[in-house]
Amino acid sequence: MPVTDVRHDLDDLTLTMTADFAAPVERVWRVYADPRQLEKIWGPPGYPATVVDHDLSPGGRVTYYMTGPEGDKHAGYWQVTEVDEPRSFSFQDGFADLDFNPLPGLPASSNVYTFTAHDGGTRAVYVSRYASADALQQVLDMGVVEGATTAINQIDELLGA
Predict the structure, then answer these.
(1) Do the Cβ atoms of 74 and 47 come closer than 8 Å?
(2) At what angle do helices 133-141 and 144-152 cross, to 10 degrees?
(3) CA-based Rg of the chain, rounded to a whole angstrom?
(4) d(Cα 86, Cα 27) in Å, to the nearest integer?
(5) Which numeric CATH code is attached to 3-160?
(6) Which is an annotated Pfam family here (predicted)?
(7) Which residues contact 111 (CB under 8 A, 6 or more apart)?
(8) What are the tens digits of pLDDT across the range 83-115?
(9) Domain ranges within the chain, ordered by starting residue
(10) Beta-carbon neighbour count of residue 67 at 10 Å?
């Protein structure tokens, strides 16, 4: 399994996940840069993602929805703030309605995804920062660790394709 470490810090307001992949940095980068590849890994198993808009550039926006086993749809967005291809990108991530408007009352996060060469492959570090301990606790209670872990663990299969 690629995910090797998961830590949350209610004082620092962060959730940090680390994963190792047996592929070069540029290949792991393409998983996020290509919307069709991103669709295969963004939702956890049983909740496939459909990427509607994909602009992975500073000021760009990525919109998507995940479809549950009962046909229920859960939308979200990224507002991209920084890109250092193929090493990192930063974005605001939030829950949205099906028109991709942010949902009030649900937490958004500031994220930095970093990819570095490590042991002949790539180490990815995913850091999400929340506005408050309550917001972080809310997503933890919603199962973000389990959902994100199973989603990230799908990357290995995609890289082997």
Answers:
(1) yes
(2) 70
(3) 15
(4) 9
(5) 3.30.530.20
(6) AHSA1
(7) 78, 90, 91, 92, 93, 126, 127, 128, 129
(8) 999 999 999 999 999 999 999 999 999 999 999
(9) 3-160
(10) 15
